[in-house]
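ugh ok fine here u go
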Amino acid sequence: MPFPRASSNSAFIVGISLSAPTYLLYILKASGLSAYGVDNPEVFAGIVTYGLLTLLLFVIDIRSLAPKALKTSIPWVYFPTNQAGWNYLFRLLGRVLVWLLGIATGAGLLAALQYLMKLF
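structure:
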């Protein structure tokens, strides 16, 4: 099985998959159906760990932690020195923004669900 590759689609899906369980835990605790919520230290640690791992794997792309496009003549220093470096940084920034959009979309959809649950 090949290693996952970061794309805007994977960033959006990971954003939704981060916000959906978090918001569902909030809804379940607020309605009294669960004793555990996001304020529980173990649950919070799990959510933060999941968020950082998925950010590293599906948004930043673990293969690009030291990209050739940002390599300089100084060892261990990475900075955009040409157009390829700037293109790489803008693609990365775009994936991070799509990830944040996925988080906002998931939270917004579940907020609407919570509102509908209160109506009925």
